[in-house]
Design brief:
Chain lengths: 100, 475
């Protein structure tokens, strides 16, 4: 059997990849997908940690995170659509009315 | 006491949010004001329930929902600021064409998330509450659908907000892996008893700090703040500047106050927060100097105030932190109320130039805005002065002298940009034509209540301090 720790390491790699993708991608949808990758990495981390701790809590938490990701997607995609309709583009370099 | 009464405040808010959503369908567009009245009435009822529950300490769901005095005090703060926001929006949303029933429903759902946050000792429930708050906030930011600034603000807030959520959840995963629990008391006990801490737990705690730092807008996680504050409808900006901050600082208190007392040597976390606090105070105030948009000035000012609040957290002085938050609620809401007053149909006056000569043309707005700005800068006899005084003096008692010196210097810098607005109002000739809608009784009620709050807390803070001390003694 594969030890649960391997999955934890995999989830950390996935999370870091998500963070990197969030910063280097120049497209709203891809950035949003990077966030989803990070959330799913979190799910994997919870599952592997629950397995190695022999407790059921972590597996239940995964369901909550899936719900969070779904509701975020609902609102987020609506907002991306709103931007697309106004500016006809979802490239980050075109979204610069305000400078943080 | 284990009782389903603990659910009441939340149930009232969520029920009325959904009821508003349904009622909206049956109301004509010009009668939408009723939704505001209904929301206000139930906010007041909910606040009344909180007062009734003050000494009861009801809990439910195995203690995962816990209405102790700490939670009740914060719930009260959240309800009060939401009430102010509802009053501020009544005229605003019809003038600026965001008159949708969803406005009040989303506002109430957002505050229900904040209430979940402050009334749970379990990190998972806290983060879920934060999500309810955040997701409603994203939608509220983009509610000016025809305004490009508003949707740009919404997309920035959404992307960075969900990025922060992922950090929070991953941090929680690591903490769960180390301590096998998501409850704050168990996690603290783990830090307290474990002889050799795993790196995993420390990284987890660091990620949690980063995630909340995004939501509170601490430097260097503040990039979204000015843009979101500028683009969002102004009453919503006022909401963002108080409610998420108050809720997240309540969580910081719940996590870090017992944490300082643990056997575990918490130097790493302490210096992390120390650095963030210095950066937040210095950067927030310095960047505010070269802003010309009043909403952006207030955004950077709210960043800087988060830095002062962190000083209170590092000084381990709960009651002055909560006092600062209470004062901050009144002075910030008041300042935003004055900014909202300067608007007319489909137009808001937000540039500094627009404020030239306002002080003599609209004396009430001029005087009250000046008092709120002086309070934000920390002049006596306002509440802002006392709040800063308490925070900095308890930090000196804890031996954090360098931090206090930086903080005092930073707040000296802040005097410049607050006074700049006042100088524009009173000492410049009017350069642009500004005419505003004056009949707005709800807004003047907010101005008056905030003025009362700022002066009452500055001159006679004893009663509220007694309540705050009761509330934080439980931590």
């Amino acid at each position: 059997m594969i030890p649960p720790n391997y999955f934890l390491i995999l989830s950390i790699i996935l999370f870091v990849l998500g963070v990197i993708a969030f910063f280097i991608k120049k497209d709203l949808l891809t950035m949003f997908m990077a966030v989803e990758v990070m959330l799913n990495a979190t799910n994997l981390a919870f599952l592997s940690l629950a397995r190695s701790a022999n407790s059921i809590d972590g597996q239940v938490i995964v369901f909550f995170i899936i719900t969070v990701a779904a509701s975020e997607a609902a609102v987020g995609l609506a907002i991306i659509l709103l931007v697309l309709r106004q500016k006809k583009t979802i490239k980050t370099e075109d979204i610069k009315l305000m400078k943080g | 006491m284990n009782s389903f009464f603990a659910l009441f405040p939340l149930l009232i808010i969520v029920f009325i949010a959904l009821a508003v959503l349904i009622l909206e369908v049956f109301l004509k567009r010009e009668n939408r004001d009723y939704l505001a009245y209904i929301s206000l009435v139930f906010l007041v009822i909910c606040a009344f329930v909180c007062i009734q529950f003050w000494n009861k300490a009801y809990y439910y769901f195995d203690g995962n929902l816990l209405l102790d005095q700490f939670a009740l005090f914060f719930t009260f703060i959240l309800l009060l600021s939401t009430g102010f926001v509802v009053l501020l929006s009544m005229k605003y949303i019809s003038l600026q064409d965001v008159n949708y029933g969803e406005f009040y429903a989303l506002l109430l759902l957002a505050v229900s998330g904040a209430i979940i946050m402050v009334s749970s000792p379990d990190l998972l429930v806290i983060i879920l509450g934060l999500e309810v708050l955040s997701i409603s906030s994203y939608a509220l930011t983009g509610l000016k659908r025809k305004d490009e600034l508003s949707s740009e603000a919404a997309i920035k807030y959404f992307l960075l907000g969900s990025f922060a959520t992922a950090f929070l959840l991953f941090g929680l995963a690591l903490l769960y892996g180390a301590s096998h629990s998501t409850g704050i008391p168990t996690i603290i006990r783990y830090f307290n008893t474990e002889a050799d801490l795993s790196l995993m737990a420390l990284i987890g705690l660091g990620l949690i700090v980063i995630g909340f730092g995004f939501k509170i807008a601490l430097v260097p996680f503040h990039m979204w703040t000015p843009d979101v504050y500028q683009g969002a409808p102004t009453p919503i900006t006022a909401f963002f500047s108080v409610v998420p901050k108050a809720a997240c600082f309540a969580i910081f208190l719940r996590i870090f106050y017992p944490f300082w007392k643990t056997a575990f040597d918490s130097q790493a976390i302490f210096w992390l927060l120390w650095g963030i606090s210095v950066l937040t105070m210095v950067v927030g105030n310095l960047v505010a100097l070269r802003q010309t948009n009043v909403k952006r000035i207030l955004a950077y000012s709210s960043i800087a105030h988060a830095g002062y609040l962190l000083v209170a957290l590092l000084a381990q002085d709960n009651s002055s932190l909560v006092f600062y938050l209470t004062v901050y609620l009144f002075m910030n809401m008041g300042a935003f109320a004055a900014v909202i007053a300067l608007s007319k149909k489909d137009k808001e006056y937000l540039e500094l130039e627009d404020y030239s000569g306002i002080g003599f043309k609209y004396p009430w707005i001029g005087v009250t805005l000046s008092i709120f700005l002086l309070s934000l800068a920390g002049f006596p006899p306002t509440g802002g002065f006392l709040a800063k005084f308490y925070v900095f003096s308890s930090a000196v008692r804890q031996g954090l002298v360098p931090l206090v010196i930086i903080g005092v210097l930073a707040s000296l810098i802040s005097v410049y940009y607050y006074l700049r607005i006042i100088v524009h109002m009173y000492m410049r000739e009017p350069s642009r034509e500004v005419d505003i809608v004056v009949e707005n009784p709800a807004l003047f009620l907010v101005l008056f209540l905030c003025l009362y709050g700022v002066l009452q807390l500055g001159l006679y803070p004893r009663n509220i301090l007694v309540l705050i001390n009761q509330a934080v003694s439980l931590l």
